[in-house]
Amino acid sequence: MSVLGCRSSYRWACRPDGHGRERGTGGRQSGGRARPGMAWLGVAAGARRAAGEGLRARDLEVLRWVCEQYGARTDQLEVLLGTGPRSVQRLLVRLREAGLVQVRRVLVGEAAWVIPTRMGLRAAGHGFGIWQLRLGGLMHVAAVNDVRLHIGERSAESEWVCERTLAKERRPGEHLADAIVITGDGRRVAIEVELTVKSRQRVRLILDDLSARHDAVLYFCAPGPYRQLSELAREGSWPGLGVRELPRALTSTP
């Protein structure tokens, strides 16, 4: 699929409105010149001042990415930025000093999690609520992050619409996809990240719903659901269905 095409950078970000390009162009740089698509930087001006002018534009772009994804591990931010742990650590110090994120060690032997604070969510400008970190949801959030990084490496021209944005637009009865990728040619691909096996009836209903509203459906699966979804794909009832294994662990490029 064209969704898995070419390389990207950390700027591969979620569409705020879920449909078109960013609606605002209100952010301004020093000297008063408008900077298209960066209105949220103006929202974060107070946080920038609070950090003693220490924050950089890249810091806030990373903050926005983390807000869209609920949270992220520090090793995933290394991949996002294509840098090493020291650079990520310095970035997180700036964000923490500004009160925009908290960094928490959750599981022994696993990289720390970066969670936006209420102030950080306001700075990102999406209007999302605080994410209540729960152990049961960590694996899924981490897997969705890995999928976003994986697709972003292969499809720089595509845009990611995050689940948090989709939840605001969902109509009653519609299945909430983990994300939508809008390809360079305008195709809308529903992204599902599946770690556990659901009943076949439930999966069929999800496929019917997503296929009716999108040009394609792309599943990234752990081994159990991968076998189940592969069997369903072979039936041919959903021509736009693609099934992939979960991405292997990505590494940063310092």
Q: What features would you describe in this structure?
A:
The protein contains ten helices and eight strands. By secondary structure, the chain is an alpha/beta fold. The chain has a single domain (2-245), classed as Winged helix-like DNA-binding domain superfamily/Winged helix DNA-binding domain (Arc Repressor Mutant, subunit A, Orthogonal Bundle), CATH 1.10.10.10. It has a five-stranded mixed β-sheet. The protein has a three-stranded antiparallel β-sheet with strand order 1-3-2. α3 (57-68) packs across α6 and α4 (74-81) crosses α5. The longest helix is centred in the middle third of the chain and has 20 residues, at 135-154. The relative contact order is 0.15.
Number of strands: 8
Tell me the overall shape.
globular
Q: Specify the CATH class.
A: Mainly Alpha
- SSE succession: HHHEHHEEHHEHEEHEHE
Give the fraction of residues assigned to helices: 40-55%
Strand order of the largest sheet: 4-5-6-7-8
Biggest β-sheet description:
5 strands, mixed
Named at the architecture level, the CATH assignment is Orthogonal Bundle
Q: Tell me the distance between the termini.
A: 29 Å
The unreliable regions are 1-13, 15-53
Question: What is the CATH topology?
Answer: Arc Repressor Mutant, subunit A
Can you identify the CATH superfamily?
Answer: Winged helix-like DNA-binding domain superfamily/Winged helix DNA-binding domain
* Total of domains: 1
Number of helices: 10
Strand content: 5-15%
CA-atom Rg in angstroms: 18 Å
Class per helix and strand makeup: alpha/beta
Mean pLDDT: 83
